[in-house]
Design goal:
With about 280 residues, the protein is α+β, with helices and mostly antiparallel strands. It has a domain at about 45-55 and about 70-135. It is built from 6 helices and 13 strands. It has helices at about 5-45, 120-125, 140-155, 155-160, 195-205, 210-215; strands spanning about 50-60, 65-75, 80-85, 90-95, 105, 115, 160-170, 170-180, 185-190, 230-235, 240-245, 250-260, 260-275. Strand 7 (about 160-170) and strand 8 (about 170-180) form a beta hairpin. The protein is globular and about 55 Å long.
């Protein structure tokens, strides 16, 4: 083999290596999008759910809000029952869209009569990142869908969304999916008439508690008025990690981190998809 043939062979080898590397990256990008598309579809197809749930949320004072519960959920109309395990502040919470003036029925237990409150009452959401209507997987679906839309508009999907490996969780093989936003920051926002932090967060696809934590003079989700200037996040978080089941395609584990570390974590166990529910 002469020098010219050796040079040509090296050139072909380098070209083949680059092609295989590019193909591998393209395949990974496609599989990441495919995993997320299947996840969104699985969430849409889950008309009823039954599951055990654990949560851990960082509070403004640096302490943690934790809870364990069992839940039943129907999506149309939205109906949720939570049986609280830890902390045992009540026996159960029940919300049915369109009934009881759209209020939550609280069963305190201990021979105390049931009472009704708004889902966003301070009795229920003080020191909580979410309210009962955020139960299930829809919030995660909306978060991911908004992130994909934003990334695609900037041609940045491959940089922001990645499958980083596999993990066994709740006896299921799962994809580990990470969403990162290196441009995450806060921006000024002027409160409009009739808005509160929950409405502002929903409109901008961000976390209401992150807004509450950032604005030191704001004491709760309703402690703002029209014309007031506050700081809100530019996206949901700098880093989000999901464990997406390869069997059900549902996000069984979600960890959300900010520049201080863990912000909130949600774990689903023993998830039953589309069971026939009994509510008694």
């Amino acid at each position: 083999m002469n020098y010219q043939q050796i040079t040509q062979l090296k050139s072909i080898s380098v070209g083949l290596l680059l092609f295989l590397l590019f193909s591998s990256q393209l395949s990974m990008a496609q599989s990441t999008r495919e995993v997320l598309n299947k996840m969104v579809t699985a969430i849409d197809n889950a008309q009823t759910l039954e599951y055990s749930f654990k949560k851990k949320e960082r509070l403004k004072d640096g302490n943690w809000s934790t809870a364990e519960l069992k839940a039943k959920l129907s999506t149309s109309p939205l109906k949720i029952r939570m049986d609280l395990i830890k902390p045992k502040r009540a026996r159960s919470l029940t919300y049915v869209e369109g009934e009881n003036n759209n209020k939550v029925i609280v069963d305190p237990g201990r021979l105390i009569p049931n009472f009704k409150v708004s889902p966003t009452s301070n009795i229920l959401i003080k020191d909580q990142h979410r309210n009962i209507k955020d139960s299930g997987f829809d919030l995660i679906k909306n978060l991911v869908s908004a992130g994909i839309k934003r990334a695609d508009a900037q041609n940045g999907f491959d940089e922001l969304f990645k499958i980083t490996g596999s993990k066994t969780y709740d006896a299921q093989d799962c994809h580990v999916v990470q969403i990162t936003d290196p441009t995450f920051s806060f921006k000024s926002y002027t409160v409009k008439k009739g808005e509160n932090l929950i409405k502002i967060a929903q409109k901008n696809k961000v976390s209401e508690y992150m807004i509450l934590e950032k604005n030191k003079g704001v004491d709760d989700y309703f402690d703002v008025k029209a014309g007031q200037e506050i700081q809100i996040p530019t996206s949901f978080a700098p880093k989000i990690t999901f464990y997406v089941s390869k069997t059900t395609h549902l996000p069984l584990f979600t960890k959300i981190e900010d520049n201080k570390g863990l912000f909130e974590q949600y774990e689903f166990f023993d998830v039953k998809v589309n069971p026939e529910l009994t509510w008694n």
